Amino acid sequence: MIVLNASDVREALPMVQAIEAVKRAFAAFSDGRAQVPLRHHLSVDAHGGVGLVMSAYLDDPEAEAMVVKAVSVFPRNVQRGLPTTTGALLVLEPSTGRPVALLEGGTLTAMRTGPTSGVATDLLARPDSEVVAVFGA
Fold first, then answer.
1. In what helix (H) or strand (E) does residue 86 lie, and over which residues does it extend?
2. Exposed, middle or buried by CB within 10 Å (0-12, 13-18, 19+), for 33?
3. In this structure, are residues 110 and 87 in contact, taking their beta carbons and an 8 Å threshold?
4. CB under 8 Å to 113, separation ≥6 — which residues?
5. This prediction's pTM
6. Is 6 helix (H, G, I), strand (E, B) or coil?
């Protein structure tokens, strides 16, 4: 099994490719080629955190994929000098269900957030747009 740490994930998926991957994933979901069940939410009230488990299957002859992602969000980690969001993504071979890769998930989650906004902006903005306004933070 391949194991990629945070640095490996950043190196393997440059932002330009991340944006294109998010765009293809949204198109596949829109076309009904992706199964993305609702995420499972696990409250860890005693420690002020939450665990999230998400899975997906992409039925695409060119890029068939099956994954399970576990992410935890613990805001109090800041006081411990730890990241607030941590996790892992398990990549499974779609034809057998066999685990083939384990990727550090906090970095992957962060890398998905920016491209999602970029794809939405690209698809929704008028072609002649020159200025963007951002509300909220």
1. strand 85-92
2. middle
3. no
4. none
5. 0.82
6. helix
Helices (H), 61-132: 77-80, 105-124
Give pLDDT tens digits along the chain (137 positions).
999 999 999 999 888 888 888 888 888 999 999 999 999 999 999 999 999 999 999 998 788 999 999 999 999 999 999 999 999 999 999 999 999 999 999 888 888 888 888 888 888 888 898 887 778 76
Tokens standing for 57? 């299957």
CB burial of 102-131 (b: ≥16 within 10 Å; e: otherwise) equals ebbbbbbbebeeebbebbeeeeeeeeeeee
Residue 51 token pair: 């665990």
What single letter denotes the amino acid at residue 102? L
